[in-house]
UniProtKB/TrEMBL annotation:
This is Cation/H+ exchanger transmembrane domain-containing protein. It holds the Pfam family Na_H_Exchanger. One of its GO terms (cellular component) is membrane. The keyword Cytoplasm does not apply. One of its GO terms (molecular function) is antiporter activity. It is found in: Membrane. One of its GO terms (biological process) is proton transmembrane transport. InterPro entries: Cation/H_exchanger_TM, CPA1_transporter, Na+/solute_symporter_sf. Keywords: Membrane, Transmembrane, Transmembrane helix. Belongs to the monovalent cation:proton antiporter 1 (CPA1) transporter (TC 2.A.36) family. It comes from Timema tahoe. The chain crosses the membrane at residues 84-104, 110-127, 139-162, 168-188, 195-217, 223-246.
Length: 295
């Protein structure tokens, strides 16, 4: 028997053409069976709900992983980040307080002097960070914190801790001045030596004389007390000037002209001149002998 020729229509249903009349019924059966098969194999409309749920769950897992990666980028060797830094600082402070409490007991209790100093340090540091976010010097927040705690009666030192606070204050000043000295440029300092001397002494003496005149005529102070007040107000605070200038130096501002070296050196000498003048005037005020000997 010869193979029946097959032709495909556009709808995909095969059409068999044959010359023998007995094959017409066979062709009709083949067409009916294939049409029913195509109807059965038609797919129902696809439901996107399941796929959307799967995608949403995958997105939520990715968000959770992203949050975990931000907080803890690596479980083995964690990188430096703000949450980890705060967590580490809190753990270290708690351990330090626990060790001090086992050694000194009542001195580190919540109303003890060491606890007050530790609390003042932490709160002042946090206030300084907050003020730095507001584009203000961190020292401003620290000063406001100290003034507030002192006036509400929380911070009150007695006994040997008064001397300890004074020692810490002097140590902080020494550290700031050493840091300023290490940041000086020797070449720029030699080139600007005369300008440094003028910038150190002339403003200090001018401020002291101006305050002396104003306090004498407006406040009724004597000349010596007015001059003493002038040297107090004329001193430059390295705690304010030095950190700001070192920050500008790290960013590269004024390096060609030696601006940071000029201001840091002048402010240091200005403090020396103000402290020396204050000591001389104070000794003259409370002297009982000749003024020449006191000077």
């Amino acid at each position: 028997m010869k193979q029946l020729p097959v032709k495909l229509r556009i709808d995909g249903v095969p059409r068999v053409t044959c010359r023998h009349p007995w094959s017409q019924g066979l062709v009709q059966d083949i067409q009916v069976n294939e049409a029913s098969t195509n109807e059965e194999t038609k797919l129902e409309p696809y439901d996107n709900t399941i796929e959307d749920n799967v995608q949403n769950e995958a997105g939520n897992r990715n968000k959770r992983k992203t949050l975990i990666n931000r907080l803890l980028p690596s479980a083995v060797c964690p990188q430096q980040s703000l949450p980890l830094y705060l967590f580490t600082a809190a753990i270290l402070l708690l351990l330090l307080w626990g060790v001090l409490y086992t050694l000194f007991k009542d001195l580190v209790a919540p109303r003890g002097p060491l606890f007050q100093m530790l609390f003042l340090f932490i709160l002042a540091y946090l206030a300084g960070q907050f003020t730095s976010l507001c584009r203000l010097p961190p020292l401003l927040g620290m000063l406001v914190t100290g003034i507030a705690l002192r006036n509400v009666g929380f911070f009150h030192m007695t006994g040997i801790f008064v001397d300890l606070v004074s020692t810490l204050r002097n140590t902080a000043m020494v550290v700031i001045l050493i840091k300023a000295g290490l940041g000086l440029d020797a070449g720029a300092l030699r080139r600007l030596s005369l300008i440094v001397v003028r910038l150190a002494f002339i403003p200090c003496l001018a401020e002291a004389a101006t305050v002396c005149l104003v306090s004498h005529f407006l406040l009724g102070y004597s000349w010596l007390w007015g001059l003493l007040l002038g040297f107090i107000l004329g001193a430059v605070s390295p705690a304010v000037v030095v950190p700001s200038l070192l920050t500008l130096k790290e960013k590269g501002y004024g390096e060609d002209k030696g601006i940071s070296t000029l201001v840091v050196a002048a402010s240091s000498i200005d403090d020396i001149a103000a402290i020396s003048g204050f000591g001389i005037v104070l000794s003259v005020i409370f002297s009982q002998g000749k003024i020449v000997n006191d000077i």
